[in-house]
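Run log // design_07
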């Protein structure tokens, strides 16, 4: 099978699976229980994602949730799906999936995870996934100037170092398109 199909086939399968419930009229509440949907995040001293988490009993990570989700959504139009713990919310991992829309750029998928009871009080990491309709070399020149090439993660996924705990992974989707995944552990 062509390498590009290895990358695109799972993505297309996921997209079709996500579209099926809507196509069949099935509905699931995305604003109840452990999953909460937050539309149009307004950044500021405390954004809605952090407020929802705090309201659900997530206290020790609320400030870190606010910091990271503000960082990911400032100057954008963004929404988040917050995954909250069923029990003991202040001592459990919390995760958010976000759609980040910026003017003139493709939408970005972002994911952030928060874990309490660590040396820093609340550990966090985030990833952003972005598709570019240009080669990975062009993406590096345009988006990641000054990044240090750090080899590959296996045979084909290129790694760039952009900070002590931050990396960019580049996947060539086609000869003229690239998927960029940025990952950072927040200390």
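design_07 sequence
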């Amino acid at each position: 099978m062509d390498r590009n199909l290895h990358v695109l086939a799972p993505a297309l399968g996921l997209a079709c699976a996500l579209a099926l419930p809507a196509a069949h009229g099935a509905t699931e509440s995305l604003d109840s229980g452990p999953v909460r949907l937050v539309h149009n995040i307004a950044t500021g001293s405390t954004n809605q994602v952090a407020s929802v988490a705090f309201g659900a009993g997530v206290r020790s990570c609320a400030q870190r949730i606010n910091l990271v989700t503000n960082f990911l959504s400032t100057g954008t139009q963004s929404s988040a799906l917050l995954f909250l713990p069923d029990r003991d919310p202040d001592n459990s991992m919390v995760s958010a999936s976000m759609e980040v829309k910026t003017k003139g750029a493709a939408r970005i998928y972002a994911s952030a995870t928060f874990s309490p009871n660590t040396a820093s009080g609340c550990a966090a990491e985030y990833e952003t996934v972005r598709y570019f309709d240009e080669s990975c070399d062009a993406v590096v020149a345009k988006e990641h100037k000054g990044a240090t090439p750090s080899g590959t993660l296996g045979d084909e996924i290129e790694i760039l170092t952009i900070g002590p705990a931050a990396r960019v992974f580049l996947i060539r989707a086609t000869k003229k398109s690239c998927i960029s995944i940025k990952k950072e552990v927040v200390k």
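The beta strands are 31-32, 35-38, 77-83, 94-101, 108-116, 122-132, 148-152, 158-163, 166-174, 177-186.
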